[in-house]
Amino acid sequence: MADLIQEWSEKIHKQLARKQAAATELLQGWVREQTVQGNERGLQEQLACYLQKLGLEVDLWYMDGKELSQHPYFVSPRLDFSESPNLAAVWKGTGGGRSLILNGHVDVVPIGDRLQWKQDPFGGEIVDGKLYGRGSTDMKGGNLASLLAIEVLRDLGVKLKGDVIFQSVVEEESGGAGTLSAILRGYRADAALIPEPTNMQIFPKQQGSMWFRLRIKGRSAHGGTRYEGVSAIEKSTQVLAALARLEKRRNERLSDPLYAELPIPIPINVGVIEGGKWPSSVPDLVKMEGRMGVAPDETMEQAKQEMKQALAGLAEQDSWFAEHPVEVEWFGAQWVPGSVPSDHPLMRLLGETFQSVTGKAPVIAASPWGTDGGLLTALADTPAIVIGPGVTEVAHYPNEYIRLADIFQCAAIFALTILRWCEPAE
Amino acid sequence: MADLIQEWSEKIHKQLARKQAAATELLQGWVREQTVQGNERGLQEQLACYLQKLGLEVDLWYMDGKELSQHPYFVSPRLDFSESPNLAAVWKGTGGGRSLILNGHVDVVPIGDRLQWKQDPFGGEIVDGKLYGRGSTDMKGGNLASLLAIEVLRDLGVKLKGDVIFQSVVEEESGGAGTLSAILRGYRADAALIPEPTNMQIFPKQQGSMWFRLRIKGRSAHGGTRYEGVSAIEKSTQVLAALARLEKRRNERLSDPLYAELPIPIPINVGVIEGGKWPSSVPDLVKMEGRMGVAPDETMEQAKQEMKQALAGLAEQDSWFAEHPVEVEWFGAQWVPGSVPSDHPLMRLLGETFQSVTGKAPVIAASPWGTDGGLLTALADTPAIVIGPGVTEVAHYPNEYIRLADIFQCAAIFALTILRWCEPAE
């Protein structure tokens, strides 16, 4: 099999080099499409055309939110997906080979504070070989690597035994409804690659995570006699402290060596706070929304129970919480944790290919965040491995960027991996 | 002068007793009008008709927000007052007497958490002699007392030397633009009574207050690697602690004996918090809005400076704040502190009248909250004293109520006070 690398490596690299300028412009266009939640249609339609011209069987579909919401794995803050189609494109094999899904999401998170961006967040500006913009790293750069891998193989006239399925899904950033829909539509394969930004580390294990909403009660009063009320904002600081203690406990007992390098392997992040309605009233309600990491070796339910207990424990330090317990709701997004054995055939094959292209041994680690890989592994029986260009450190940040060279290196690794996994037909 | 009390007390009480049922229904109607900010027009028009029928010279006017906003004392979160007219009604005297303004606001604060209300917040339900609803105590009950005082005197055929001016203003809850407009329209008098809920204590001194907005910065990151960002929500807990220390310092040095009974004479209340946009992102910005009490013996500017210094001090305990200072903005509402000397003739006259009606010595105290009295005193040279039915403890709270008996007692005190201050014409 390593002969395939010797045979094809140079051709693939040469073909990729020819495509660099056009591919860079393509990615700039993708970033400029501003595919925040609810605004994915434009880019998905553009991609559908592109893949059709490449000769793949294209499937662009609109999810029925109402129907999909009946599924136990459905999580999304919305049911209307009329501006958010999913896309799959199949490169049909001649038969007898292993199939592979290349799964990536097209949705991007909001830009946050505009003032912290030095560039236009949706400009796609290129400085020193880095392309800037929301979604560049998470994960349009990775999607481009997948697309280029398919494109160069087709340019070079390759025919494969196994199917290659390119997926551009929506809704990954809020729980995976896009990938869920693709699975229910019948898309599955012998394995999957997800080019989320791992800085080209290989992640066989993926942290799960889920979103929570807390309601912290107070008692209203006039601000001028605030001592006669109970401030839900003041009470919230105790809740934040309890969450910090819970996070510490959960991480201290985590022994998986793949997580050894991470300061907080399974973090609890409070992302949104909102409370009170009037500056001169004592606030009687604060809502917090956040994300709780779930270890690969625990269930979602176990994690939920632990959160519940930690919040119930507040009653011991403050009787207010005994009478007004903090309410927890699990809503919106959820990523099932995923795990592929280290000795899975694609793990070995991918590692060898990586080494051959980069000249370095691959770093095997565990993802500090959830991906759609959990769903693919758990629900579609499609073992999913996460590896992609771009660094986690800039995902969801202002000034997000991706190194263009990393995308092309990933494309080369993917092209060779496809060739070896799906096998040439002749 | 005390002869006037002997002569009129019984007549006034009898006439008030006849009016109780109708007056109670009137107040229920007022509460049901839901006069939250921007929804005052209906009740103001209804009041205008009522006062016209009583024979007063009625003036219902719409403020020009743009023009008014040029005034240094203007503070309001809005410029559009098209649904929020002001109302003044003059009972013209025959001349040669002292004039009196009865000033009250028609706007009410929002209801807060609906679930904490046992009654319909705008139902005006009566249980055990208490009328429930937002605005019952703050301050429609007080306004009814003013109106009844005028009405019974007119019923009894009284003619006065001095003018009595009934004012129903908007916008008191967010800074006094209504009273400011009334002053600029020319309304002023030898003194003013403001029936805010003091539980019939007499407040010659009024705490000032102003609204602030703080911006606390963080640095965004993916929630799964939250340790790579800086949470603006976590930083906010340090800001809250700094505000608590500032409040403690400011109150410890307060020596005014009128404030001796209050746990926190000039509180700093954080009423609103809002930060972050996405549960699984580290929040990069938190906004807080609140109210800072201002002592009668300090200027607004001094209080602002002290807040600024306290927030600047955060940089010493955390270098994050040195690089990302908390921003302060003074916005929306502002109540100028006010002070009437204890030996002012209306103070003496009011105290005697109170004693005669209730059989008890009046309690002289200082208001724990700002009122429009500061503007009247400072800008219109109209010394304003605050005294009214209802207890502060229920203002701005769920289940706000007012004891109906307290309103009628206040009406009697006001009727006699008007009679003695403005003097019968014949």
UniProtKB/TrEMBL annotation, chains A, B:
Keyword entries, A-Z: Cobalt, Hydrolase, Metal-binding, Zinc
Top-level taxon in the UniProt lineage: Bacteria
Cofactor: Zn(2+); Co(2+)
UniProt EC number: 3.5.1.16
This protein's record includes keyword Manganese: no
Domain called Peptidase M20 dimerisation: residue spans: 206-317
EC class name: hydrolase
MF terms in GO: acetylornithine deacetylase activity; metal ion binding
Database matches in InterPro entries: ArgE/DapE, Bact_exopeptidase_dim_dom, Peptidase_M20, Peptidase_M20_dimer, Peptidase_M20A
Family: Belongs to the peptidase M20A family.
Protein name: Acetylornithine deacetylase
